[in-house]
Specification:
It is a single chain. The chain contains 3 helices and 2 strands, in the order ββααα. Helix 1 packs across helix 2. By secondary structure, it is of the alpha+beta class. It has one domain. The model has no long low-confidence stretch (mean pLDDT 89). The chain has a two-stranded antiparallel ribbon with strand order 1-2.
């Protein structure tokens, strides 16, 4: 496995406010993405979206189950 570092600034805005993020790793980026998906779609719809994304990687799904 390789080490990936990320240099990015993410500015997210929605009706109730805004947030800025500076992820430094894929894990931090994933957490930010999940947080924003939940804000946008709600928990269940975000879970469904993530499940659909993982369907591209069958070996990953088998390992989780």
């Amino acid at each position: 496995m390789s080490t990936v570092s990320i240099e990015a600034t993410i500015n997210a805005k929605w009706a109730q406010g805004h947030s800025s993020y500076s992820p430094g790793s894929p894990e931090e980026l994933a957490i930010i993405g999940i947080e924003l998906l939940v804000k946008e779609l709600g928990t269940q719809a975000a879970q469904n979206f993530i499940q659909q994304a993982f369907e591209r990687y069958p070996s990953v799904i088998e390992a989780i189950d």
